[in-house]
Design goal:
This protein is of the alpha+beta class. It contains seven helices and eight strands, in the order ααααββββαββαββα. It has a five-stranded antiparallel beta sheet with strand order 4-3-2-1-5. Strands 6-8-7 form a three-stranded antiparallel beta sheet, covered by helices on one side. β1 and β2 form a beta hairpin. The longest helix is centred in the first third of the chain and has 76 residues.
Length: 299
């Protein structure tokens, strides 16, 4: 009898468990549907925000570029120096782009307080990691205000690079060499090193060396060289050009030639003067010696 009651109890429990299975499955399915619905809504909402952020980013970058170009044109119309126009234009462009990125992140749903906190921490980390870049930024400000050179000047750096300044930007200065190479120089190094500005003054002096043979008439050579210089309109009369003996070398008497021209005419005139001297002096029996050595043999 007891065994029959035990069997009946087990069977009853099994029947109840089987009856509860469909209810649990239904509850789980309902919970799964609710979760999928919620996730779908969140995905759609995030997707719309992401699309809006991309539109804001692309459109904002285009507007930032237009605004920075307009700012440059306004400065140019107000007769601002090209140095100031280039530097401030680059600075405004970067600020506008950072603003657009912040607005795009806010559009996605990132809280502004979080953005500010991240920017603060990132600024500290970036400032420590990019200390050289910050020096270049400070150097750009120094160049803009102290104006050791400006756009259009010809400069020579401490490491021998010579070219025309085309742009002065926030971190770098762009120069074009005479053989049309483009060199980007860090502003930090430029502001802390020796720079020779070849365009600072209106006139420049050219120095030439002309070697003639021992025994040639120095006065004749001087007279002919001065005649060549005076016949060229680019050579200034005041200060007057001079020709003098600068060295008694092993194989030649070296004549120093000095004359003054406008700054833009100095380099072109050098080649022209050397060619004219080379062509004219031999006609006056003035020779250009080759290196030679006299050997005396004693028996």
């Amino acid at each position: 009898m007891e065994e029959s009651q035990v069997v009946d109890g087990v069977v009853g429990n099994a029947v109840e468990a089987l009856q509860e299975v469909p209810e649990k499955v239904q509850a789980s399915a309902s919970a799964l549907r609710d979760m999928i619905t919620t996730l779908s809504g969140m995905a759609v909402d995030f997707g719309l925000k992401l699309i809006a952020a991309i539109v804001v980013l692309v459109g904002g970058m285009w507007i930032a570029k237009r605004l920075s170009n307009s700012f440059k044109r306004i400065l140019a119309r107000r007769n601002a120096e090209p140095t100031v126009v280039s530097f401030l234009g680059s600075f405004v462009n970067i600020l506008l782009r950072v603003f657009v990125v912040v607005i795009s992140l806010a559009t996605v749903g990132v809280q502004m307080t979080s953005i500010v906190a991240v920017l603060g921490a990132a600024s500290l980390a970036i400032g420590m990691a990019l200390s050289g870049t910050m020096q270049n930024f400070a150097g750009g400000i120094i160049i803009m205000f102290l104006k050791p050179f400006k756009v259009g000047d010809i400069i020579t750096t401490s490491d021998g690079k010579t070219g025309t300044v085309k742009k002065i930007m926030i971190f770098t200065t762009e120069i074009h060499t005479f053989d049309n190479q483009v060199i980007l120089l860090p502003n930090g190094a430029l502001s802390n090193s020796q720079i020779t500005n070849l365009s600072m003054t209106d006139t420049r002096r050219a120095d030439l060396s002309v070697a003639i043979s021992y025994g040639d008439n120095i006065d004749t050579a001087r007279k002919e060289i001065l005649a060549i210089l005076k016949s060229d309109k680019r050579i200034l009369k005041d200060p007057a050009p001079v020709v003098f003996v600068s060295d008694l070398a092993d194989s030649a008497v070296v004549l120093g030639v000095r004359y003054w021209t406008a700054a833009a005419d100095m380099l072109p005139s050098r080649g022209d003067m050397m060619e004219a001297i080379y062509n004219k002096l031999p006609k006056k029996k003035i020779h250009f010696p080759f290196p030679q050595m006299d050997v005396h043999v004693k028996k």
